[in-house]
Amino acid sequence: MTGHRTVPLDLKLAAVLDAEDGHPVSEIAKRHHVSRQSVYRWRRNYREQGPSGLRERPHRPRRRPQRMSPDVEALVYCIKQSRPDWGADRVVRELARLGLPHVPSTSSVRRALRRNPP
Asked: Which one of 52, 79, 85, 105 has the fewest CB atoms closer than 10 angstroms to its CB?
């Protein structure tokens, strides 16, 4: 019951139909070795979207609002190329000195430099 495991579509459908027939959700969950919350979620998705609501969905977020903008990332690369001896912390200080409204953290700059080394 811990972590993400893929549950076959037919098992989800059987659990939902059992719940719709009035069987106790706790018994259904125990029989199928899933959590009660999963059964409730499947039932809600089934009611709202039909059988297609039981398909597996991606677990990663759809967007990353805190991701560094491409312009700032390009500036990080320019600074690092002009001063290859500087580390991420010094690049962050330089970005702050240049007056960026939102200076990324040292760890964000480090990740950006690891993604695309100069």
From this structure: 85
pLDDT tens, 8-48? 888 999 999 999 999 999 999 999 999 999 999 999 999 99
- Closest by CA to 19, choosing from 28, 31, 10, 6, is 28
Query: What contacts 105, CB < 8 A, 6 or more positions away?
Result: 92
Banded model confidence at residue 1, pLDDT cuts 50, 70, 90: very low
Spatial separation of the C-alpha atoms in residues 49 and 1, rounded to whole Å: 25
The C-alpha atoms of residue 5 and residue 82 are separated, in whole angstroms, by 47
